[in-house]
Amino acid sequence: MRCIKDALEAVEGKWKLLIIYALCGGAKRFKELSRDVVGISDKILTSELKHLQENKLIKRTRTDESTITIQYELTAHGRSLNKVLFELWNWGSAHRGEVIGKSIGINQATDVE
Question: Which pLDDT band, with edges at 50, 70 and 90, does 95 fall under?
């Protein structure tokens, strides 16, 4: 159980897995991530990126060219989650109607009461 708890702590929250998924295609700049992870604020994105760096799932690279560019990309450790994300995507795709349908029903029942 401890291993599952540790893994969940590394990717817990609403946004971390979505950020990791957005980086699966390669390195991105902050604004690209902000655009790809729909609904996340810049403040939350900054915080989540720091947590992902602390857990060595992503790395931040700064280039000192004429204009400073900062990019974020998955580390080998972060890329090791690709299989997990793929399976989660498959599960979500197969069960989306059931899960969304149930949560809509719950929300409607709550609204009526």
Answer: confident
